[in-house]
Write a structure and sequence with these properties.
The chain is α/β, with parallel strands linked by helices and about 190 residues long. It has helices spanning about 20-35, 70-80, 110-120, 140-145, 150-185, and strands spanning about 1-5, 40, 45-50, 55-60, 85-90, 100-105, 125-130. α1 packs across α5 (about 150-185) and α2 (about 70-80) packs across α3 (about 110-120).
């Protein structure tokens, strides 16, 4: 079993924010896989499905970004899933908008959602699908991640979310290393 946690903030106020791209990808995966409705549990929303003969739990923590680990830890414990079977989809300031990368382990790069997961779940040995949102040209990082995508970005956002969903599927099918080898080409 694999747990795919898409990070974001709950509520309509945040729905189009850069910080919510993880939620967008999880919702796209639910559509692609024909997963039924989400249920509230684990301080989040979750749905169970199957892809490539693998049982997968899709999770959207509803704790707000900075406390994402509370929800993820509860889901890991309930489904008896280890860190090696956790895949987190999140926004990434250090990648230009539209760039996608898979990463296993490593630091949090100041991402509070990742920091919470590492702290609550006892380590960083999980896989990440990093969705590039770029850095702000000016102003605060917090204001930037909590703002909606620009009009130009919104035009290509559906494609970005689709490609990120396909990247998650590649991890499910090939494992993190196999997906990296197949998808991280220059």
């Amino acid at each position: 079993m694999l747990l795919v946690a898409g990070l974001g903030n709950p509520g309509p106020k945040y729905a189009g924010n850069r910080h919510n791209v993880g939620f967008m990808v999880v919702e796209r995966l639910a559509e692609r896989w024909g997963v039924g409705g989400f249920r509230e549990k684990f301080k989040g929303r979750f749905a169970k499905g199957t892809f490539a003969d693998e049982d997968v739990v899709l999770l959207e923590p509803l704790t707000y970004m900075n406390l994402s680990g509370e929800s993820v830890q509860k889901a890991l414990a309930f489904f008896k899933v280890g860190l090696g079977e956790l895949l987190v989809v999140h926004d990434e300031l250090d990648l230009p908008f539209g760039e996608l990368r898979i990463k296993v382990g490593g630091g949090t790069a100041g991402h509070n959602g990742l920091r919470s997961i590492v702290g609550q779940c006892g380590g960083n040995g999980f896989t990440r699908v990093r969705v590039g949102i770029g850095r702000p040209r000016s102003g605060s990082v917090e204001g930037y991640v909590l703002s909606d995508f620009s009009r130009d970005e919104q035009a290509t956002l559906p494609d970005l979310v689709e490609r990120a969903a396909q990247m998650v599927e590649a991890v499910v099918e090939k494992g993190p290393r196999g997906a990296m080898n197949a998808l991280h080409r220059k």
